[in-house]
User: Fold these one by one.
Assistant:
Number 1:
Amino acid sequence: MSSLFDQLPTLLAASSELAPARSQMAFTLGFHIILASMGVAFPAIMLIANYIGLRRKDPDALRLAERWSKVAAVLFAVGAVTGTVLSFEFGLLWPEFMARFGDVFGILFAIEGIFFFTEAIFIAIYIYGWKRLPGWAHFWTGVPVVIAGIGGAYSVVAANSWMNQPGGFELAADGSVKSVDLWKVIFNGAVPYEVPHMILAAYLVAGFLVASVYAVGMLRGRRDRHHRLGLLIPLTVACVAAPIQFVVGDTAARAIADDQPVKFAAMECVRQTDTHVTEYIYGVCTDDGVKGGIGIPGFDSFLVGFSTDTEVTGLDTVPASDRPPYNTMLHWCFDTMVGICTAMIALGLWLAWAWWRRRDIPGTPWFLRAVAVSGVAAIVALECGWIVTEVGRQPWVVNGVMRTEDAVTGASGVWVNFAAALAIYAVLGTATLLVLRTMSRRWREPGDAEVEVPYGPSEPEPPGVEAK
Amino acid sequence: MSTADAVAGVLWIGATLYAVFGGADFGAGLWTLLAGTSERGRRARRLVDWAIGPVWEANHVWLIFVLVVLWTSFPDAFASVMSTLFIPLSLAALGIVLRGSGFAFHEQARRLRYRRFAELIFDVSSLLTPFFMGTVVGAIASGQVPVGNAAGDPVSSWTGPAPILTGALFVATGAYLSAVFLVSDARRAGDEDLERYFGRRALAAAVAAGALAVAGLLVYRADARYIYDGLVGDALPLVIVSALCGAGVLAMLWRGGRRGTRPLAVGAVVAVIWGWGVAQHPYLLPKSLTISQGAAGDATLDATLIVFGIAVVTVLPSLGFLYTLTQRSVLGEGEGDSARRPLTRAEQK
């Protein structure tokens, strides 16, 4: 027993910080990505409601916009702190990565800083500007938030794209960066598909998630105009985005087959380079091929090159140490993401058909049930996509250039950090949900909705104003 | 002046803005921690909510700005600081999460018990976050951060007298700035009682911050000799300006004056930050990494300056717009406005 205690410090010191560092990064990013998506896309949905409200003098739409802005405020605050944590983690967890490549791709975060600043400033003006600013002037203070959201998403996702397709720098013989071409960093090879893919994902998550809240309300019998609008505005946005996302995602998968063939092979469980490769839906990836799952002969080759004669690169082209881990999980994540997107398109077609025939949402409760689960489904698809991108790039932090194990901190005790992050984020997530529920309950109380008018004179101004 | 020096200047501008605006924000949390639950304490807390509500998020973007400029333009310094000072920086990040979420949640919490809990989280993390950030600065200043991945001591690097005192100084400075700002905010809200309340607190914090600054100078003489020599050498004029500003604020507060304290208080803090910058020049990490040694390539430095230029013409006017709207009380939350704006005594009757 005592010998174990003697060895414990040495054991702890010897064990790498890589596993806890990767776990913490994956967990905190996976948490933040939901809030970031809401931050990018929710303000646009809110402004659409605001626009409809002002244009058609529709008090229901205006009330939705006002309430959504308050929800956006809470989500933005939590997103801002979890985002700040990530910028700490770059240094806390991956100092070698930052020391070597901070000067190459860091500039994207500087650009993101401008967008984030703009977003923080104008979202504050918008949220606190109800009642005090005239209607259209107030509407326009929200527009920079939407633009900055897209710009910020570009910058951050472009940084990740660069990790997938690094370029725009030259290495000296000792491995240090010799020269940098920032245009090639900012517009790196993976930007054209990864950036739109993520921005659309944000719109899908925000759209379906907000719509799902109102679908639940309608299933519980609250079928007033307020709920119908609250369902239709975000749902329309998401249903328009879904088919575009499918095309963008399909393009991305083909580009990855070219640019990161090992990642693609892991996504599709392709062991050996071959033509006429079978496409497997689910199934377990083993060294002897895919066990179980639904196989469509030749279809994987067809998806990559529109012909079953297309050669698909297999995992065997690189040594085992250069292959991504968790092959089956990656494959399942990819299939789940594609499956959910397909179901979303079907949901959109259902809505479009009913609208075309009857100018109404489908009458069956099964439609509302489908919308009610679409929000969570969108988040699942988002996380799956993120796992495919990140785990699929392993064992590299900078694809083909720097290994993740060489990037990690030399500080000890990362697992303490990870445990703390798990505990605090669990509380944070729960508190966020509770606060949002409290807000929605307060809004449902009788009296509140009738008294509230979004624009117009409000309470007397603070006394100091008249004195000036 | 080299491009690297210019970028270091940009970094310092960001650090200064964070110290002033973020520092005042943290300080406000200290005052709510001390406000208690008396009737007046609740009013003080409402004033703080009302004053920082619209601006606190924008104020803290300066921290992101500093981190980003550091890792882009001086990546070795960033990596060395973040890995050696892993513990205090982790604690600061923890404080940022708790503080931001505590503030975002406390307004919405319905039950008093949860509200008080969220407020307590906000208050305590407002105290701890600047303290740990101060220890980081003190550790850098006292030469405890060598170049390399976790090359310095994980504990003793930031637990010496200089880092601890710097942490305390950060807390006191934030409290001082915040109290001075809140005096103006109380006047804006028309609450003369709170104006006097924060006036007294500003005075106490000014004395505490001044005493800690003098003590800090003595500790730096022993533990951070390079910075001390700079402060009493090249940076002496700035130190004197800071002292004069600080003394001016003290005198005005003592006489019960309110007008003009804000610019003087800010001046005292800005002068000492730039004094420190001059004293530390040309080192990023005193005695182990100079600005030119640690700088990224020219293409990256130029790009950082360009991005900063864009920020100056886009972000600063927007920020000015936000502060103007806030100061003229154009912004206020709809349904919560009557709850947010602190009621004056007259209104309560």
Note: The radius of gyration of chain A is 25 Å.
Number 2:
Amino acid sequence: MVGRAEPLRQRLASGIAVLALLAALVAAAFVALFTAAAQIEPRLLWEDVHLRRVVAFSFWQASLSTLLSVGLALPVARALSRRHEFPGREWLLKLLGLPLVVPTIVAVFGIVAVYGQSGLLNRVAGALGLPVGQYLYGLTGILIAHVFFNLPLAVRLLLPAWQSIPGETWRLAAQLGMESGHIVKHIEWPLLRQVVPQVSGLVFMLCFTSFAVVLTLGGGPAATTIEVAIYQALRYEFDLGQAGLLALLQLLFCALIVALIQLVGRTPHVEPLTGVRQLRPDLGGRGARAADYALVALAALSTLLPIIAVVMAGLTGPVLSVLGEWQTWRSLLLSLGIALCSASLAVAAAAAILVASRELRVNRYRDRSAEAMELGGSLILVVPPLVLGTGLFILLRPVVDVLAWAPVVVIGVNALMGMPYVIRLLGPPMTRITQRHDRLCASLGLGGWARFRIIEWPLLRAPIGLSLALCAALSTGDLGVIALFGSQQTTTLPLLLYQRLAAYRMDEAAVTALVLLLLCLALFVVIERSVAGRARA
Amino acid sequence: MDFHFDLTVASGDCTAVIGPSGAGKSTLLALIAGFELADAGRIRIGGLDVTHWPAAKRPVTTVFQEHNLFAHLDVAANVGLGIHPGLELDDEQRRMVERALDKVGLGGMAKRVPSTLSGGERQRVALARVLVRRRPVLLLDEPFAALGPALRREMLALVAELRHAGNLTTLLVSHHPNDALLAAENTAFVSDGRILAYGETRALLARTDCPELTAYLGGAQT
């Protein structure tokens, strides 16, 4: 064992270095925020009616969004889990994964096209003689958009809970004569009680820190969140003190929310079982079946409609003139470059952390340290991108031309945003490899590049491909930090779309939205296919 | 895979069901319990044709290898589910649960939760539920496969005690010919979806005229 100590230390070094860099970055941003905020008397803050309203609205919209998303996701997930025979079930699940990849700003465009004043719904209502209304901007629009993104997410997170119920349990329920109510009470509720708080916490956090949705669909001071207020303070009022203070406030709330989620309990380990699917005894008759089908169809439709609307609007827009503009291509290339760089960076940094954490977990039995390292890599979940961006903005402004540095900052922050996903995708298979093959590799003298080529790459290329693809798509569609740092010279495709939307150049926006959507999907598919290879495990 | 089962067992008997993995042992039990429905043929229990009865109505209790208990319910509640699936029990029924727990050797453990029990104790809880359900047929689907030899013998002895006291007609799926010798008067050998041999346990295990059986036993009994 003594002889192995050296290489083991090497395995820890790179992960610790990455974490140290992250910590330094966040600490520097924090100091910058604090210095800027120190100019403002904190007492004034609490007397600021506008600020109090912004804080209250942030919590209010996030609570409602969570309630709606998770509340609707529960029956949809239950219906999906009950009906294995659902036609095109695989495709449905893929469809529910789509909102994760579709850029927020594109989805917002689609939602306006469906639910907006001259949108699909109003046109149908008008044709039927129903009252036509303008209700989208403000709280309603924010809720619709948040449900669009988070309902499918919640369904996908809740589904494994049902799939983890063993077949024996359903047989037992049948033999004991359990009815639907008993099944809910004895089988489903005990499981959901463990999962729902975690899922709700995650959705709440996502809605609380949501930026692009509130920026585009929130209307005026009545429907503004802290995130958007930070942006306005920085870009419109150029009030660094106010921006710094708001960012610190947001950081504080996020830390509190995350602490609360941790308090509720750790994520329970629900492994979906493979093997023979058992039908549950309470499938009900035709009515129950029709209700389940209708629920799932409705969820699918509300996910699909905005995306279809984007495609339709884009195809009927001034395609040639938008594609003829240099501005479009320059933004596209910038977005592409940022996406590829940030995706590679995210996977490399996360892998460095995972090499260290699995070493701690498997070979040194230090589960807690390993978990702490992985949590450290998911830092961005506590420090929202916009908060970090604001800190970096204040930090860099006296030193360099911040607007010229936009691509670098965006690459870094986007990489940080991707890392939690990479850690979740790559972590379990990497740990499994260490558990299964470390000793065999050691006994065969297999190490370094040879080990990576023979053991790691074939087993990991599928999750690596998925990680890269997901990070690239997320980065391509991100409208966050770029809104703070963007300028005429550094406009990404999402920012260009936002500018065109804000200027009410809807025809051009429609084509831009379609281009952005296609870029995202193409990047996702091409990267996943080419890296993961055909033999996907 | 096709299954064609033809088997008659006498009331109150214990029949061991042995055979290779995937031969259809569990399917046979699932058909009797009503978890799976037969495409053709009849299933009769005590003169009643139960072929189309729902699982809950059949005079049958099944004990699985695992997942017999609900993890969030205590021992008494897990047994009580056998009386009423909504756990609405009166005092007499609660006393019945206590007596059943005493009989399987779990007196005083009524308030424990499954995660604090050993594998053997969990199966005892499942057997206590068999007692309160009072159904004449007991189907044991490899319930002791995960237990060590000594514990398995102990559990088989408990099963023998319970079934004699309640006159339960028992089918015991097992991988071990020894279990059959210990607990079952008769044994059925299942292979490839069919019952290839049936008879008095000791005689069946000694047969040499059935090549599949000889291959399965592989000289384990010599």
Note: The two ends of chain A are 34 Å apart (CA to CA).
